[in-house]
Amino acid sequence: LTHGWHMFADNHDGILLPGRFAKESGGTKNPNNWYDVGNGLKYRPRWVAYMGKEVGVYAFKTPRTDYDRQDYDNKVYINPLRPHMKDERNYAFGYNHQFLGNGRKTKGKFHKYPVHRDEITNFTDTVLGATCMGTAAGFTEAERTPYDNNGKSYSSFGNHGWTLDPPRLTPNADKGTGDPGSPRTAVDPCLSGKAIVAFLDGSVVAKSPEELGYRKDSNGKYLDTGAGGNRPTNRFFSGTGEDNGPPSLPR
């Protein structure tokens, strides 16, 4: 599937895949919210379905234009270590959308879109996507609740897992679900304490949260920021190899 990321850019004049396109007025009734996923039209599909279209590995047996909580049918999309996390919203893999393409809008302005491939200067050290625990990352390990395939509880493991926030966040940045008060998302170390991570150069490896730049408190809650030499760092997310802050929300 990772090859589909570059193929999307090849087919769109170098513009990178957004995590999801912004919602246009009219919701599911508006054809402008319907997108081709290879074997039919789908209402505002998430990033991974676009990648699958490019390589001919389709996400859904029957994509729908009237619903955005379908389960992924194709086994290629499923994390074998989290086989139950297959809802397209509460998904097992999250996209580095804040740096690679955030199609959300505030006051009619995109958060971070379009992004051109030539803006990326370090493909080897830039995360494309990784296993993600969703907004449960903003809670201590004891506060997290079990996965709910069709739920929206912030504390639920995997909630809004399709978006992966970078390690270091700022007060003016997007976060989690994008709703006011949303906790952050972060990687899921599902493989012997390590996350499964795809980089822009096509490599897929296992890395601990700390190796990727994340930091946690003593109770397992992922931190947004910190002080000193041990603060979270975005060097593996920014696209430049530098610890750049995430884009600020439009004003």
TrEMBL record:
**Which intervals carry biased composition (Basic and acidic residues)?**
209-219
According to the record, the residues making up region (Disordered) are 158-187, 209-251
State the protein's name. Uncharacterized protein
